[in-house]
């Protein structure tokens, strides 16, 4: 009889351990599936880490594709409006021209307007409503909100947010600039996908 009890206890232990191991495996799988793509922007001012949203897949996938291709490397924040936004992404703002990269971005991306423009959110630039009534996004240009820009809510696609390095974003905001909000210092950027 003690052997049967010991055998039953062993079976119960193995069953419970097996269930726990399966739960742990499922939890790890869920964590890996829920991990959002992240992009690191490096510069002489410091690094900015951006997390991309899953519910704006057209913008997310396009951004990841351009980062992987090296499209953004060598660009600089060409528009700095203190208290409002810093912007980059236009091929004409590359220090060393690279015609092979200039054709990579699509002309536009269909709007995926879902999120508010809070401080630190990353949004796609676009042409004004009078020439772009569908509010389609630029194929490459984007900006980081320096404040809660409520006037942009419902008008521009937010597709990510800064999760580390807002202090670096604030350094860019303070750069001296001309009357067109173009900074005098062209600080090159390097983009890297974090997988």
Short précis:
This protein has 195 residues and is an alpha+beta fold.
Give an overview of the whole structure.
The structure is a single chain. The chain is α+β, with helices and mostly antiparallel strands and 195 residues long. It folds into two domains: 1-34; 36-194, Cyclophilin, CATH 2.40.100.10. 30% of the residues lie in helices and 23% in strands. The chain contains four helices and ten strands. It has helices at residues 2-34, 57-69, 99-102, 166-173, and strands at 38-43, 46-52, 79-81, 85-88, 108-109, 121-124, 137-138, 142-145, 158-164, 190-194. It has an eight-stranded antiparallel sheet. A two-stranded antiparallel ribbon has the order 5-7. It starts with a helix and ends with a strand. The model is unreliable at 6-34 (pLDDT under 50).
Number of domains: 2
CATH superfamily of the largest domain: Cyclophilin-like
Strand segment tally = 10
Could you tell me the CATH topology label of the largest domain.
Cyclophilin
Please provide the ordered H/E string of secondary-structure elements: HEEHEEHEEEEEHE
User: Averaged pLDDT, please?
Assistant: 87
Radius of gyration from CA coordinates: 23 Å
Task: Give the end-to-end Cα distance, rounded to a whole number of Å.
Answer: 55 Å
Shape: globular
- Mind summarizing the main beta sheet? 8 strands, antiparallel
Individual helix count: 4
Strand order of the largest sheet: 3-4-8-6-9-2-1-10
- Structural class from helices and strands? alpha+beta
CATH architecture of the largest domain: Beta Barrel
Quickly name the level 1 CATH class of the largest domain.
Answer: Mainly Beta
Percentage of residues assigned to helices: 25-40%
Strand residue percentage: 15-25%
Q: Which segments are poorly predicted (pLDDT under 50) over 5 or more consecutive residues?
A: 6-34
């Amino acid at each position: 009889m003690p052997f049967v009890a010991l055998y039953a206890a062993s079976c119960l232990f193995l069953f419970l351990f097996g269930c726990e191991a399966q739960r742990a495996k499922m939890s790890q799988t869920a964590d890996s599936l829920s991990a959002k793509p992240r992009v690191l922007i490096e510069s002489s001012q410091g690094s900015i880490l951006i997390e991309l949203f899953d519910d704006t897949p057209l913008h997310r996938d396009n951004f990841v594709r351009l980062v992987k291709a090296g499209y953004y490397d060598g660009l600089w924040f060409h528009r700095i409006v203190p208290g409002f936004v810093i912007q980059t992404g236009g091929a004409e703002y590359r220090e060393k021209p690279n015609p092979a990269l200039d054709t990579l971005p699509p002309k536009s991306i269909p709007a995926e307007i879902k999120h508010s423009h809070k401080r630190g959110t990353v949004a796609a630039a676009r042409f004004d409503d009078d020439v772009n009534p569908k509010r389609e996004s630029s194929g490459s240009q984007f900006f980081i909100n320096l404040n809660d820009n409520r006037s942009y809510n419902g008008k521009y696609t937010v597709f990510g947010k800064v999760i580390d390095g807002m202090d670096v974003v604030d350094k860019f905001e303070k750069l001296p600039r001309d009357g067109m909000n173009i900074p005098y210092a062209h600080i090159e950027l390097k983009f890297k996908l974090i997988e």
